[in-house]
Amino acid sequence: MKVLVAYSSRHGATKGIAEHIAKTLADEQLDVALRSVADVESVDDYDAFVIGSSVYMFHWEKDATAFVRKHPGVLGSHPVWLFCSGPVGTELIDKQGKDVLESARPKEFEEFAELIHPRGAQVFFGVYDPMREGATIAERLVTRIPAIREALPAGDFRDWPVIEAWARKIARELKPVPVAV
Q1: Domain extents for the chain?
Q2: Are 45 and 117 in contact (CB under 8 A)?
Q3: Is the confidence at residue 153, as pLDDT, over 90?
Q4: What are the tens digits of pLDDT across the range 63-79?
């Protein structure tokens, strides 16, 4: 079973999640290729797909969205899982009582449910580091506003055990069930 783990990552956090998923699938004895969606030349040689993107303003990155829209036939006829990283913090429920991860689902997930029928779509907490190399002046200045600092706490909030458990679940679904003889 050859699995493509493809991702789009603006600042590297989603790439880190994709790497962790790929390693976990490989540890489960699956043949895994890890690629940026921009570097995938063909999807024809894969048996299953795990596709992820960072999310900004409730949308997947444009190149990840274009990737799915470009390959609906192949993706729709193979096992596919989608993921994204986006929300930051540690609280699962916000002040209004809403599920943080559910509220952060990218708008594209609904479209993709109809287009390619993924077996799962998962939102993971992400990373926010306004002082990272390459951060814009606006990203650095916005952290001086108390309300924004509270809404967007800086830090790495990726939950590695949750990510690994999700990847192991995918591996279980992809591995053939041994037949007793």
Answers
A1: 2-127+156-174
A2: no
A3: no
A4: 999 999 999 999 999 99
Identify the burial level of 133 via C-beta atoms within 10 angstroms of its C-beta, where 0-12 means exposed, 13-18 middle and 19 or more buried: exposed
Look-up: residue for tokens 């409730």?
58
DSSP states of 148-167 as a string? HHHHS--EE---HHHHHHHH
Which of 3.90.550.10, 3.30.420.40, 3.40.50.300, 3.40.50.360 is the CATH number of 2-127+156-174? Answer: 3.40.50.360
Q: Tokens at residue 123, please?
A: 């939102």
Structural element, H or E, at residue 18: helix 13-27
Quick check: 109 and 81 in contact, CB under 8 A? no
